[in-house]
Amino acid sequence: MIRVDGTKSNTSASDSMTPNNPIIPVLDGITDPHIRVYDGVAYMTACHDKSIDNEWFDSDHWVMYSSADLVNWKLEYALHPEKTYIGKPYNQCWATDFIKRNGKYYWYFSEHNHGVGVMVAEAPEGPWTDPLGEPLLKEGLVLTDPYDPGIVEYDGDYYIVFGVWDFYIARLNEDMISLAEQPVKITIRNPRGPYNLDGMNKKHPTDDKPFIHIYKGKFYLSWGCFYAMSDNIYGPYEYIDAILTDSSFAEGYKEPTWPTGFRQGRHGSFFEMHNQWYFNYDDMSQTGNRFFRSSFISYVHYEENGEIAPVRVDGTGVGQYDANNGSIEAEDYFKASQINKMENKEGGFSVTGIDHGDFLTFPNIYGLEQKSKIEFKATDLQGVIVEIHRDSPEGEILASYRLKKQRGKKDPDVYTFDFPSQDGTISLCFVFKGGKNNLFIFDSFSFK
Questions:
Q1: Can you list the domains of the chain with their CATH numbers?
Q2: Whether the Cβ atoms of residue 351 and residue 341 lie closer than 8 Å to each other
Q3: pLDDT score recorded for residue 407
């Protein structure tokens, strides 16, 4: 990867594989990303940082991209402020969010930190129109700046969360362009943030960029890489942790970073696609300019207690795999049937709950030309046949292996088999066969 200053950056991807982080070319300045998935397609709304020479958060329009594989992205629409109530060129086109309801699409956007507007369309590619001709959220509505909207659907209702330092939430009317209630301040117990790492900064306890997602009945309120959890969408929320740690970063991705460190500035969103969870967020390591950022995606894995494990930040990204880069973790699949992830007692995760006919798909595997063996790291509970198909469960069977039952063995074992060499990039689908449910625990695989 080449940084915009012309120097080469490091990446964990092999020479034959194009790095997938940033997901949009670094010189495009696509930032503050939020992703929604509809009909198997990921739609990302984001801001466009104006110039590599930016000395402030100068974003001159908003964009929408789409992708079916999280690797190849298509620009669907560029929303310019002239098409909104702003009505003129504007350099503070700040963060957005996007959602579908009742067959229509709603695109919420920030006018600097002064207000939030909304656009409506029949399709993601537009045309988009401004139904209000004024902000939905105006200055003075609450005791915080009304910007950085995040939309969440719960139990048939839709909510908007927004603000800085203190976050507010309100239910939207069915028309999605008006509030059904006065916004309510969200209580967060013992919060932390990039300016409040020790908990002593009561004036700036959190950040801006609030977002809420739901996992297994729990509500997760995040602000960048910091998050809190609650049993109620309105709170109170209990601060948990940040999902970026010193060990999160591949070489070349921890620095350059923000003035307060790598936990600052990570505006983003959480989303689910094909039974996999992801974090989509800002990064500046490849530009060196905190005002000209790019967008990354990382896998998200939840621990047994519901907390989010630290995420990995690297160039490989998601939706592609490097056969020359050691083991491929089973939990980093792109697509899966209804299976579960299990936190390993020694650290990391495995895939469990594998029943007869279940599958895992790993598209865009590079570097198999010189490989002749495949190794599975797994705990075989029942005796299982692993079929490797091309592309999907219905695709050509490339190989089939029987993993013998290891009686009384609870730790993972390594199973090695011959594997037919493959030219170029290939997508593999692992289909599991056996006579019982909970066939085995799948930790990782590699090619030799």
A1: 26-319 (2.115.10.20), 325-447 (2.60.120.260)
A2: yes
A3: 62
This model's pTM is above 0.90: yes
**DSSP state string for 10-22:** P-SS-TTS---SS
How confident is the model at residue 335, as a pLDDT? 98
DSSP string covering 84-133, please? STT-S--SBEEEEEEEEETTEEEEEEEETTTEEEEEEESSTT---B-SSS
Which are the contacts of 73, defined by CB distance < 8 A and separation ≥ 6? 23, 24, 44, 65, 66, 67
Average pLDDT over residues 194-216: 98
Q: Where are the alpha helices (DSSP H) in 294-350?
A: none
Angle in degrees, CA 143, 146, 148, rounded to 5? 135
Give 83-91's long-range contacts (Cβ < 8 A, gap of 24+). 83/119, 83/128, 83/130, 84/109, 84/117, 84/119, 84/130, 85/117, 85/130, 85/132, 85/133, 85/134, 85/135, 86/111, 86/117, 89/60, 90/60, 91/50, 91/58, 91/59, 91/60
DSSP state of 313: B
Predicted pLDDT of residue 140: 98
CA quadruple 110, 300, 213, 72: dihedral positive or negative? positive
Residues linked to residue 67 through DSSP beta bridges, in sequence order: 42
Where is pLDDT greater, at 377 or 405?
A: 377
β-pairing, 93-101 vs 104-111, is: antiparallel
Mean pLDDT, rounded, for 326-346 = 95
Q: CB count, 10 Å around CB of 59?
A: 29
User: CB-based burial of residue 97 (10 Å sphere; 0-12 exposed, 13-18 middle, 19+ buried)?
Assistant: buried
- With tokens 């599975």, the residue in question is 376
